[in-house]
Amino acid sequence: QVQLVESGGGLVQPGGSLRLSCTASGSIFSIGAMSWYRQAPGKERELVAKITSGSSTNYADSVKGRFTISRDNAKNTVYLQMNSLKPEDTAVYYCNAVVRTSGGAWTDFWGQGTQLTVSS
To answer: How many Å apart are CA 24 and CA 111, to the nearest integer?
Structure first.
């Protein structure tokens, strides 16, 4: 009943910038924390950034100072602004949201992923 759709990935040069977006739709009562994860080939999926419903944020050390997570509650959308991109940022980026649906239970939902490639 809930879908998360990411967009904004692509191929960029080192030092470049890109913004990812993720929009939730479906039977949504409310949305709690929203996060961005990434998974590079041969590596485990890792948390990149998280933003709570109160807009508190947390970042992985590897992206701190370069990435900014934000949300637009009216649009059910979370963004990830990525600056000063490095080749090691190359990965599939996944959106995650904790969603309250009918019945009052909170459930994690995942997007399908969007590819970011940083290369010359």
So the answer is: 9
